[in-house]
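Project outcomes to date are best conveyed with an example. Our students and postdoctoral researchers have been running inverse folding experiments weekly, and each run begins with a structure described purely in tokens. The record below, which covers 251 residues, was selected by the lab manager from last quarter's runs and is presented without edits.
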């Protein structure tokens, strides 16, 4: 299968690799591209990341509880989290906040990160072009997918909110990915686990499936995704191929 090969850089431009999608495979119901979030969709990282965030913020003099940060910050980029905390608390976080948080995340991921249950088999059964579009940095995306054995599935088609003017819930990231992969927004399906991600996909005029099956998705989580506008909400990654119209024969 020929594949896409674009990655955004921090200046918002794309770096082309030597792999391009010259011929798109036939896809069910005119779906030409499935765009996956990473945290809480491909890797079960939200609980781990949230604990790290609470611990690092406390060390900087900002006390939050885990429920508060999960509710306020899931799905947002680190620059957006930093901006919101500074606005709420009225004092700046350290300039190296993002670097300190990433170092702590990296150590925690090395010890505990797992793929979302069933995701590797689900990806194998989806014969549609796939890419990643995440609020995390490219370094974090690559690290997470490498640890969980999923990186090769996307073969360089990695997009970070750090490469666009506005992160989720703005549509910039998803539109950037679709544009650089030559796919109309209407032919994309986004798989997201957060309300900001659902809102971003809808603002991009894309179909969006809300995943509420990772370890951070407690009571009422599926309803929150549905209320945000998810076209479908599911809790078992094994359901995704069928939701996309992929049959066993097409996988």
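After processing, the design step wrote out the following sequence:
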């Amino acid at each position: 299968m020929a594949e896409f090969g674009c990655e955004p850089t921090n200046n918002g431009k794309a770096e082309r690799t030597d792999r391009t999608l010259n011929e798109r495979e036939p896809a069910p119901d005119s779906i030409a591209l499935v765009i996956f979030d990473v945290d809480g969709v491909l890797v079960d990282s939200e609980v781990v990341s949230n604990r790290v965030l609470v611990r690092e913020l406390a060390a900087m003099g900002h006390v939050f509880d885990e429920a508060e940060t999960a509710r306020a910050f899931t799905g947002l980029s680190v620059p957006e989290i930093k901006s919101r905390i500074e606005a709420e608390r009225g004092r700046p976080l350290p300039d190296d906040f993002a670097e300190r948080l990433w170092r702590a995340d990296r150590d925690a991921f090395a010890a505990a990160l797992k793929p979302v249950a069933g995701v590797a088999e689900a990806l194998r059964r989806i014969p549609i072009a796939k890419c990643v579009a995440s609020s995390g940095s490219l370094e974090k995306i690559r690290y997470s997918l490498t640890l969980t054995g999923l990186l090769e599935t996307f073969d360089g088609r990695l997009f970070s909110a750090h490469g666009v003017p506005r992160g989720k819930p703005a549509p910039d990231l998803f539109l950037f990915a679709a544009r650089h992969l030559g796919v109309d927004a209407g032919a994309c399906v986004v798989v997201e686990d957060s309300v900001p991600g659902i809102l971003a996909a809808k603002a991009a005029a894309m179909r969006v499936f809300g995943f509420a099956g990772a370890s951070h998705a407690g009571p009422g989580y599926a309803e929150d995704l549905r209320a945000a506008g998810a076209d479908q909400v599911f809790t078992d990654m094994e359901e995704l191929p069928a939701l996309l119209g992929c049959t066993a024969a097409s996988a």
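The two ends are 13 Å apart (CA to CA). The longest helix spans residues 97-112. The training component of this project remains on track.
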